[in-house]
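Re: beginner question about structure tokens

> Can someone show what the tokenized structure looks like for a real chain? I only ever see the sequence side.

Sure, here's an example I had lying around. Input first:
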Amino acid sequence: MSEFEGGVGRVPDIMWLQKLIIERAIVRGNYTTAGGHKTDYYIDKFRLFSDPTILRRIARMFAPSVAEVSPDLIAGTEIGGVILATAVSQMAGLPMIVVRKQPKAYGAFANEYVEGDFSEGQRVLLLEDIVTSARDLMISKARLEEMGLEVEMRAMVNRGLAPVKALLQFTLPSGTPRTDN
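And the corresponding structure tokens:
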């Protein structure tokens, strides 16, 4: 049995992830999300992803999604989704592709949005770190579908009303942070 098989207790892991985000990754201030929403907190995922033990445990939390989707490939959106996709790909033993926000302007594959080997008709599990509106994730999904891939999306955290399944639905009210949500 691989490290990725067998899974981990889902409810304890969700509680662990929520507590970890509150304790280590919440930064208070006035921020604008990638989707243009104003918020008084930011989730600094790199405070989580930079720790290999934490990243490995988060990657394992995607085991039910891998089992449900049964993908041929794992995909990640730059930059946080690529980190998650790399970890999940390694644990699941599945190849990975990267979806860029903008095509790179150099190299052998200039002007392409997707990096890595894939074939039309393959099933892809597209991963993202944190979504609010999921605008960029939906664009990435559409790009993959235009290339003939079947795409299912998942995120680590959904902090809005995005139509994306996530490990954790996470919101904090404005003002003083609460931890009972």
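Each token stands for a local structural state, so reading them left to right follows the chain. The chain has one domain: 10-169.
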